[in-house]
Amino acid sequence: MDVLVIGAAGMVGRKLVEHIAAHPDCLGGDIRSLHLVDIVAPSAPAALSSIADCAAVDLSTAGTAEKLISRRPDLVFHLAAIVSGEAEADFDKGYRVNLDGSRDLFDAIRAEGQREPYRPRVVFASSIAVFGAPFPETIPDEFLTAPLTSYGAQKAITELLLADYSRRGVFDGIGIRLPTVCVRPGSPNKAASGFFSNILREPLVGIEAVLPVSEDVRHWFASPRSAVGFFVHGATLDLDRVGPRRNLTMPGLSATVGEEIAALQRVAGTKATSLIRREPDPVIMGIVAGWPTAFDASRAASLGFTAETSFDEIIRAHVEDELAGVI
Amino acid sequence: MDVLVIGAAGMVGRKLVEHIAAHPDCLGGDIRSLHLVDIVAPSAPAALSSIADCAAVDLSTAGTAEKLISRRPDLVFHLAAIVSGEAEADFDKGYRVNLDGSRDLFDAIRAEGQREPYRPRVVFASSIAVFGAPFPETIPDEFLTAPLTSYGAQKAITELLLADYSRRGVFDGIGIRLPTVCVRPGSPNKAASGFFSNILREPLVGIEAVLPVSEDVRHWFASPRSAVGFFVHGATLDLDRVGPRRNLTMPGLSATVGEEIAALQRVAGTKATSLIRREPDPVIMGIVAGWPTAFDASRAASLGFTAETSFDEIIRAHVEDELAGVI
Fold first, then answer.
1. Which of A144, A148, A163 sits opposite B167 (nearest CB)?
2. Could you give the dihedral angle defined by the CA atoms of residues A163, A164, A167 and A171, in that order, rounded to the nearest 10 degrees?
3. Does B46 contact A at CB distance below 8 Å?
4. pLDDT for B95-107, tens place per residue?
5. Between chains, do A160 and B157 touch, taking CB under 8 Å as contact?
6. Active-site residue A95, yes or no?
7. Which of A72, A198, B31, B85 is placed for a possible disulfide with A209 were both Cys, Cβ 3.0 to 4.6 Å?
């Protein structure tokens, strides 16, 4: 099969490609070609060098989607987006990339199928940002999508397009609503959610990290490893089992910051937890207060999507995948 | 104030304009101008002839929205859409008119506001078609929008845009999710929902009507008079009371076809009900089986939106408004 990954240079995109390199039959068939694109050129793992083709493309410019789709990939991972903060700061760019870029992609598939029958699988990275407060304590699968950010609106709109285009047979789409991914590898970033990862990742390598909220803040998490698992499962799942509601809240772990820290203590000891510096930040506390705390992701679970059930697991996955198993 | 009505030649649009003619202060201020547009030129009631300006325009063609908004109306009623059946039959036209037309309008308002501060009220005609089966028996205000038609998807997407543009201060929008409007005036049409009105309207003037479903079919209704009331209330309501969830399921009456017929019997006697010919149509029965039966429209009710509470009222409103009170 021919596979296209849009957004292959992002954190989850890179991990997805690495997973494919390590498990070449995870997508349920021989991979003939792997087209990896992003706004900056992605790189391909050595194991894939004979079949991978990497390019820097901007999905939001005219003609890009048509060009990508003219190769008729059987499977499209669509992970390209500008992030929440940028979509809020730049209204036009957010709608152009996150909404129009996605719609161009879907329309390019439709146009290709009108030339010659074509119906690829499309696995789309959505987000729990499609939901907006006020929430019930646990958000059910039938809860409304009333986002409170432009990013969330753009993701929710793309979900509606994905479901309608799928219903009409343009492609076989599935939308994966990612929990907050934790532990995020890399350097601390300025995202309001950064601290959830920072307070684990930095102390694990002996560096101090700042905790700007209280320990009773609760949120919804899955590891990068689980995120990759969601996309791989979404690529191979029998969509007849899913029916017309194609956008699924992924399973995750509802945990407090205190539970995060207790798990860090169990996995890495006081040596690590003593590196967490409490520095309450009212701005971040205000932002985080509007975030969901837990989901009942029954539908996704019944369809075989799985995630961690403790923060110990999440931390151990990080130690294995990012620190070669060494604390 | 200056008022723009897009879709002023449609059934609800015409009734809205007639209502404004009869109650010129219903919009909470003196009306200086009334711009009435539709795909065919609307006509203005005589009482409004000095302030009304009618034109045939196609909202989905480039530049149309900018032109309409260059007059800087204080209040915009956006009722323009192609109907469900046509949006399903013509994919491109549905998305072009129902989605792109709405987005062009919203973007024209944004562009106008960037030239010079401008923030009109926008009252948008949405639909219970944003919901898709399976449903609970009574659909709550927090139920997900998972439409099963392209029309429903286009309305749900426009709702998300309306909420996000409102949140960002581009305009003050409110989305009005109309129940099935009954009794629809005019001639019987081929819409699958037509019989709900046909079996009342036709017998009331001595004409036979066909009932293609069983009497236990339940659905969600409001009169054209209530529909007009929703738009007028949406135009004048304090939106701070509404908050960021700007799309509201309107109140209505949950009733079975049997209850419709019993009300017709009470209002117009056996002379009328004997004109209903039962002719079960499996296709229509199948379509209608996927429709919602009842909503808990608590939010809209708490914000002062009202509708009929019995089919007797709905029929009497029709007799008063369409038959000059004479059966």
1. A148
2. -80
3. no
4. 999 999 999 999 9
5. yes
6. no
7. A198
